[in-house]
Write a structure and sequence with these properties.
This protein starts with 15 loop residues before the first helix and ends with a strand. Strand 2 and strand 3 form a beta hairpin. The longest helix has 9 residues. The chain has a domain of about 55 residues. It has a four-stranded antiparallel sheet with strand order 1-2-3-4. By secondary structure, it is of the alpha+beta class. The chain is built from two helices and four strands; from the N terminus they run ααββββ. The relative contact order is 0.18.
């Protein structure tokens, strides 16, 4: 099975801890997603994020409801985290 990997880098004028905290909060994914996708996190906002945490989402793409799940596979605050899709389109 072929796997795909997406990586990117960007320089920000904020402390690493601040940037990590922002991107590690699943609620901020809603803030970053275009409103026309009607993105919603199904998982409770009180969840503790750590390696192995599962997060469930839903959105609508061209009127079609989609659900997916991601797993935090690497959790190394404040350096990095990796999430991978475990279910979904």
């Amino acid at each position: 099975m072929k796997t795909h990997r997406f990586e990117t880098q960007i320089w920000l004028s904020y402390r690493r801890e601040e940037v990590f905290e922002f991107f590690a909060d699943p609620c901020n994914l809603e803030r970053l997603t275009p409103p026309w996708l009607h993105f919603e996190i199904i998982t409770s906002p009180d969840i503790v994020i750590e390696q192995g945490t599962l997060l469930d989402y839903r959105l609508r793409l061209r009127g079609i409801p989609l659900r997916w799940q991601s797993e935090i596979s690497v959790w190394e605050p404040p350096q990095r985290f990796i999430d991978r899709q475990t279910k979904g389109p």
